[in-house]
Design goal:
Length: about 475
């Protein structure tokens, strides 16, 4: 927060509605502009680098705005084989794609009862998205060869264009392509991808026989496989070494595939990430807020590790300019609930950071996300953690504004809420002095906490007069 950034989100809407297609791209095409959406269907048992590279290269080659991975519920072609439970395949996809902002994963096939047919999926997508969203169904050459045999192949052809990726071991001759195009009315684009002779079958076989799958899929996926003992993974096998060790360069997962978001490894990894996201001074400020918040948590009996992480991450979205942060709010789907802040875009980075972090790291506790969300605005009914992050933002050591020292001196000497009220008074005073606008909701926060202080004062008086 800068000292200019006070406001409050009045009447903040409750939980966001559940996404229909996927979290990141439900609103694609809403502004009427043409959008190209890639669909990567498959069993993903498990997802591997062949899938990811194929999707990424299709995105690049065909200018796709997004690619959605859609793990099959009950794949029509794999009914005979025991397929890993859909939730686990979904989770592995989610872990694999989360680092790429152009990717997301959809539950539509796993939530649809019965055998999965691509035609039903495309129909659902067509119904959801407006006409300016074009669908590109990405498949490996192996799948294209059999597409004429798929249920309702004519319907598939009418709803999406195909991107056929070359895949080692599966040839797709020009002749076959023409036959498919002509007899099925398909529009097929060929995509020369890096030939990765990787398959899920091979990964499963490797795990079963105790061989390494490291580098054949994302480390998070490997950790998940190991953590859940999928494909016959034995914990005592030699390859258990493949599982990431918790350390600053790793992705902070325990051997069970769970992320300890309050642990040192996660903290260090986010610290590194933040360093590249914001300018040096902002980074130093964030470290200051982190340390100060941790110290205040100790003093006021709150969870130190939660506070230090919230402090570190509070300015996660600070590098955007006004236009950028508005666009970010739209992309994250939080613009509507933040409508009153669109004219004061410097208030948006708290809420957008919370939404973005929740999307990227679903394991983060909601109490931490709330503290980040409210740090630009404050709110009625803040939790101790919210108060700590708000105050730490103002008093951390790299801030050298006159008057901050008096606030620093109050830490531990007055109640947390009183410290917050003093800090708010300081911030509002600053805004007034500099002839800055004050968001009307700020007045509500101010009145709320002043009234509470008066109540406390009154009850103290009563106690004192006894
Ligand atoms: P399995 O071995 O179990 O059949 P798979 O590796 O073929 O698994 P699927 O989930 O069947 O993976 O594939 C999903 C989609 O990804 C298909 O369109 C498939 O052609 C494509 N695909 C899979 N592996 C590759 C790869 N290495 N390169 C390019 N495309 C791939
Ligand atoms: Mg396959």
């Amino acid at each position: 927060m800068g000292l200019t950034q006070v406001g409050i989100e009045a009447g903040r809407a409750g939980a966001c509605p559940a996404p229909v297609i996927c979290e990141r791209f439900d609103d694609l095409g809403a502004d009427g502009r043409p959008v190209r959406l890639g669909i990567m269907g498959g069993t993903f048992d498990p997802i591997h680098i062949g899938h990811l590279a194929c999707a990424e290269q299709a995105r690049e080659a065909f200018g796709l705005d997004a690619v959605v991975f859609i793990p099959a519920g009950k794949p029509a072609f794999k009914l005979k084989r025991d397929v890993t439970p859909a939730e686990q395949r979904f989770e592995m996809c989610r872990l694999a794609v989360r680092g790429n902002p152009a990717f997301d994963v959809s539950r539509i096939e796993i939530d649809r009862p019965g055998v999965t047919y691509t035609a039903d999926t495309l129909r659902q997508l067509r119904e959801h998205y407006p006409g300016n969203v074009s669908l590109f169904f990405i498949t490996g050459a192996d799948a294209v060869c059999s597409i004429l045999k798929w249920r309702e192949s004519a319907a598939i052809a009418s709803m999406a264009e195909l991107i056929a990726a070359t895949r080692p071991g599966y040839a797709l001759s020009e002749e076959t392509r023409l036959t498919i195009e002509q007899s099925g009315n398909f529009r097929i684009h060929m995509l020369e991808t890096t030939g990765l002779a990787v398959s899920s079958s091979d990964l499963r076989a490797r795990v079963r026989s105790g061989r390494s799958i490291r580098y054949l899929t994302m480390q998070q996926v490997l950790d998940y496989i190991a953590g859940h003992g999928l494909y016959g993974w034995k914990q005592d096998r030699k390859a258990v070494r493949e599982v990431s060790e918790v350390g600053p360069d790793q992705d902070n997962r325990s051997e069970l595939g769970e992320v300890d978001v309050l642990g040192d490894a996660f903290y260090q990894a986010r610290r590194e990430q933040l360093k590249h996201r914001v300018k040096h001074k902002r980074f130093e400020h964030s470290l200051g807020v982190s340390e100060t918040a941790a110290r205040m948590a100790r003093v006021y009996g709150q969870d130190e590790r939660l506070a230090r992480l919230a402090g570190l991450l509070h300015d996660w979205d600070k590098a955007y300019d006004d236009e950028g942060i508005r666009a970010r709010a739209v992309e994250l789907g939080v613009a509507e609930q933040l409508a009153s802040y669109m004219d004061m875009p410097h208030l948006l980075h708290g809420p957008t950071a919370a939404a973005a972090l929740a999307r990227e790291f679903p394991e983060l506790p909601s109490s931490l996300l709330q503290a980040i969300r409210l740090h630009t605005t404050g709110a009625v009914g803040m939790s101790p953690l919210d108060l700590i992050v708000y105050v730490a933002d103002v008093i951390e050591p790299t801030r050298d504004c006159p008057g901050v020292d008096q606030l620093r001196d109050l830490v531990g000497k007055v109640e947390l809420e009183e410290l917050f009220l003093e800090t708010l008074a300081y911030v509002i005073g600053n805004l007034i002095e500099r002839r800055k606008l004050i968001h009307s909701d700020t007045v509500t926060v101010w009145n709320h906490y002043v009234a509470r202080a008066q109540e406390r004062g009154a009850s103290n008086d009563v106690k004192g007069s006894k």
